[in-house]
Amino acid sequence: MFSFCTDPDTLSDLAWMACYLTTGKHLNFYYAFGTVLVLLAITAPTALAFGFAGASAARSRVLPLSLLGKGYIAIVRGVPDIAFFLFFVIALDQGLEYLKHQWVCPDWDQPIRQGNDFLVCQAAKVPLGTSPQWVHKTYSFFVAVFTFAIVFGAFAANVLYGAMRAVPRAQLETAEAYGMTHRQTFWRITVPQMWVYALPGLSNLWMVLIKSTPLLFLLGVEDIVYWARELGGTKTPRFTDYPHGDWRMWYFLVLLVFYLAFTRVSEVVLDRVMARLTLGQATTGGDAQRKAKA
Amino acid sequence: MNKLILTTAALALTASMGMAQTVRMGTEGAYPPYNFLNDKGEVDGFERELGDELCKRAELTCEWVTTDWDGIIPNLVSGNYDTIIAGMSITAERDEVIDFTQNYIPPASSAYVGASADIDVATAVISAQAATIQAGHVAESGATLLEFATPEETVASVRNGEADAVFADKDYLVPIVEESGGALMFVGEDVQLGGGVGMGLRESDTELRDKFDAAIQSMKDDGTLNTLITKWFGEGAATF
Question: How far apart are alpha carbons B157 and B165 in whole angstroms?
Answer without folding.
Answer: 8
